[in-house]
Amino acid sequence: MNILTFRTQEELNKAGAGIITGLLQTNPRAVLGLATGSTPIGIYRELVESHRQGLVSFSKATAFNLDEYVGLEPGHPASYYTFMQEHLLGLVDIPPQQCHIPSGIAPDLQAECTRYDSLLEEHGQIDLQLLGLGHNGHIGFNEPDATLEGGTHLVELKESTRSANARFFDKPEQVPTHALTMGVGTILKAKMILLVVRGADKAEIVQRALQGPITTDCPASLLQTHPHVVVLLDSEAGGLLK
Ligand SMILES: O=P(O)(O)OC[C@H]1O[C@](O)(CO)[C@@H](O)[C@@H]1O
Q: Which residues belong to the active site?
């Protein structure tokens, strides 16, 4: 595991975008696993800028998003579909048919999970999986539990996750109770994982995830078993590392 700590958000954003740009320059057909939340926004901003400057193209890449809320139409302002359109996918040259995200409004959610896994399977391995980290150690929406799922599945969100994400909604009660998420098995199958964490409020979970016991109580701790993880931290998030 390669842990890099940055003094400024700008340096961190440029480093993250540089890794993704470098991958696309050597492998334009790369399969990217993408994340939502506040954490990747600055990296996406840098990628959009690099694309504007003609330094990187997404035209042959494929994107798979980690997760989506159940019950939100793609056009809902807080859906992860909208998030990705506004922050990256709608701003670069990736064709829409190469962008995938689970549908949270599918009439049969189990069938939707199976469809998403089949699509992932067809594309082989994800080349680079970008991840943020939940305060409770979740990756994607894989919440702490006695067991974790390998493939895409329906998850009931923890109250702490719902309140952490309430800032994206008008009222806290509008935060959906459930989501579809890629499983930990799919995440760990990626060739490379880029975990990004910012802020003092995540320093404790960063320490547990990267240096604590490997346990399903902290899903991100399973990343310790992966052969190629790069972690980008700001100095606050890395403040409790030993
Ligand atoms: O980056 P944030 O907003 O702190 O969110 C943390 C994590 O929770 C999620 O929003 C749930 O999937 C992730 O996308 C994100 O990595």
A: 67, 136, 138, 143
Ligand 1 within 6 A of 8 CB? no
The answer to the question of residue 239 being in a domain is no
Gyration radius of the chain over CA positions? 17
The pTM is what? 0.97
Alpha helices in the chain (DSSP H): 9-26, 41-52, 80-87, 109-122, 159-165, 184-189, 203-211
- Torsions phi, psi for 237 (to 5 deg): -65, -30
Render pLDDT for 117-167 as a digit per residue (tens, 0 to 9): 999 999 999 999 999 999 999 999 999 999 999 999 999 999 999 999 999
- Residue 201 CB–ligand 1 contact under 6 Å: no
CB of 39 closer than 6 A to ligand 1? yes
Structural domain count of the chain: 1
Instruction: Look up the ipTM and state it.
Output: 0.92
> What is d(CA 22, CA 5) in angstroms, rounded to the nearest whole number?
20
Q: Which domain holds residue 58?
A: 2-234
Q: According to the model, what pLDDT value does residue 164 have?
A: 93
Nearest CA to ligand 1 atom 6: 134
Q: Is residue 182 part of a domain?
A: yes
Q: Is 110 helix (H, G, I), strand (E, B) or coil?
A: helix
